Amino acid sequence: MKEGMNRREFVKASAAAGLAVATAPNIVKGVDDRKAKLGFIGVGGRGTGHLSLLLRRKDIEVPAVCDIKKDAVDRASELVVKSGRPKPTGYTNGEEDFRNLVVRDDLDGVVISTPWEWHVAMAVAAMKAGKYAGVEVPAATTIDGCWDLVNTSEQTGVPCMLLENVCYRRDVMAVLNILRQGLFGEIVHCECGYRHDLREVKFNPGVQFGPGANGEAVWRTAHSIKRNGELYPTHGIGPIAEYLDINRGNRFVSLTSTASKARGLRDYIIRKAGENHPNAKIEFALGDVVTTVIKCANGEIVTVNHDTNTPHPYSLGFRVQGTRGIWNDVNGSIYIEGRSPKEHTWEPFDSYLKEFDHPLWKKYAEEAAGAGHGGMDFFVAHAFVESIKRKVQPPIDVYDAAAWSVITPLSEQSIAQGSTPMPFPDFTDGRWMYNKPSFAFGEEY
Amino acid sequence: MKEGMNRREFVKASAAAGLAVATAPNIVKGVDDRKAKLGFIGVGGRGTGHLSLLLRRKDIEVPAVCDIKKDAVDRASELVVKSGRPKPTGYTNGEEDFRNLVVRDDLDGVVISTPWEWHVAMAVAAMKAGKYAGVEVPAATTIDGCWDLVNTSEQTGVPCMLLENVCYRRDVMAVLNILRQGLFGEIVHCECGYRHDLREVKFNPGVQFGPGANGEAVWRTAHSIKRNGELYPTHGIGPIAEYLDINRGNRFVSLTSTASKARGLRDYIIRKAGENHPNAKIEFALGDVVTTVIKCANGEIVTVNHDTNTPHPYSLGFRVQGTRGIWNDVNGSIYIEGRSPKEHTWEPFDSYLKEFDHPLWKKYAEEAAGAGHGGMDFFVAHAFVESIKRKVQPPIDVYDAAAWSVITPLSEQSIAQGSTPMPFPDFTDGRWMYNKPSFAFGEEY
Fold first, then answer.
1. Do B188 and A288 count as a contact with CB atoms less than 8 A apart?
2. Residue B212 and residue B145 in one domain
């Protein structure tokens, strides 16, 4: 991207210059006529969720679907047909067949919901073929992968959106609204994380994982065996990055990461299947709790906890703290100095959720109703589709995808080196200093 | 301390060898007759709190009281006289007059409640004079100070107790009970901190601090101006150290510390007194939130937050997490797999507080009623007095005092070096591997 260009100019310029985006077959005639033609790579649980949700819209077409499992493609095709659309072409011919999908000339964008380690290859292939890449979280699992996404997007002029739905959680967006109205004062500290007991996801059925197991146990468990780090940062860090204007006036500068011992998964296996089960001998690399502390250019610090191997209720553990007030999602509370009725005493967040409901939620609550994960899935898909229709950068762009996802490999390095601080790459090459915040300002998407 | 000796043997051996403790004037005749003769150094807010509480006991005498302020000593003397005891000798002749108190031959122990930077000098002087040192938190502010305490205690054979009251908080002790009964499984991760809005303590009255100000604003504020680190770790880390058997089979190995920018205090001054007030120009060193992550020898990690400059309700932010269950004080909840009625759902902690009430609380609840900080002040003073009467090591000993307090200077070094990991000194010189847990096992103290 040329210096001084903002995202919107960049995409328009790319289009004007006859780059990939401009060759996409969709011609903008008017808001009502615009459609996004989407291909789906990966239609397991998550991909099917995206597909079902998007099929409720009138402004999308689904010419192609890809999955290594034929029955997944068949099920997806049936959903498309049931929605009154033509039967999509299916791509099921092995792990590399997605490359045949992305080069079709009847697609504007591709939704990628595959195992983590495939995200970069698929998003890069999509961008190189001129298709908007909508990639599930995390976007990459290595530093090189993050750079590949950024470099490819810059070289092709094609956007890549990270499909981080939690940025659109209703309370998360209300807090964004509260923050932008200044009620927290100047933010100094945030906390977030992924505290989700995944034992029944990592082992399914019983204590099985790998080929032949169900759902994410097929591939996700391997990451717990081989890797020790903050493996899943974006649900927590995405919203925090929006609060802190990361890549838009601020950036992540460095992190330290520390891992506890790994005990939970083995304990689970032994209780479920006994000490003599072969899986009871596995040495898991992933610490049960991994705590990462990030320092930002503007002086804020952010704590991120990854916590998926032991029994506890689900929480993303948000805490946003400034000179005038604080939101504490762990106890569902807020405290604003001078506004909260009782000094040094929490107020329930509920009334703030109503008063500061984000304009996007006010406008689209009805459309979001029934969408996955409390409605937030609607918004992230909506943003992807609307960005494609307008041929603009999506609100969560390739620099966000890289800066949020790179936490994982950096935390692995920090842990491997005894919690040594690791610097973040600056994927924007200095443009973070000049970029302006852009997430969820309008009422459109 | 000689290798292979446990604490109790150590004190008994010291006494038998005619060391300082043995020359103390109190002779054990029987439980009912034993008394602890206590001197008080520092009778401001906190020291007076200890004094008032201890005067309710029949087993203590107070022959001497010291403070640089004569009116403080007068007030303390009056309290002693009102309790039916002889008027104590007062020491008010400047900052070094405490040295004349500690050498009296009618004292067994000294309670030290002075500004942090005096704790080491006073505790060392007390131990050298053969008096049990009971020192308020933190015990020291430097690494050398921690070593001075340990070396002096070992060389003199005289114990030093850190008066960390939160170890005796009723819910904290119930959790200790739950943990020892195995309900959490194997502990992997803990969180704690000191999240206390101290702005009205650091500035009092108005935005004043330093000489002429009130209470702790006289001296404590200077630490926020000059130091950037985890300044007050022991209220949080004390209970966690007991949970994790620190110095007794486990130890703190290393930490990283990261500080946010410092904004809260200046914002407070400007709002209270305007931009033109001279204090509005102060550059505070202390980050508003300082997050420290400690790695333990047995593989647990502990997050500690110091957070005193912005508006928020008080919390020590406890979280104790194992392979089978978790206590989350931030939302007043607990979850024990297989016991909690609803899967993945918090239970209120209240019923556990009743069921797992610690034997010490069951026994002494009546005596503790009305004591400071919800009754826990009774227990810490009780433990100090009972240890003196029995001539044994106190349950929170000089190694605990050092290991918990050294977090502060280590965190300052880590922050100054960009969150570089800092190793903990092993104050026990390897004995942590053989020492057995000893805190709050009996029903006596």
1. yes
2. no
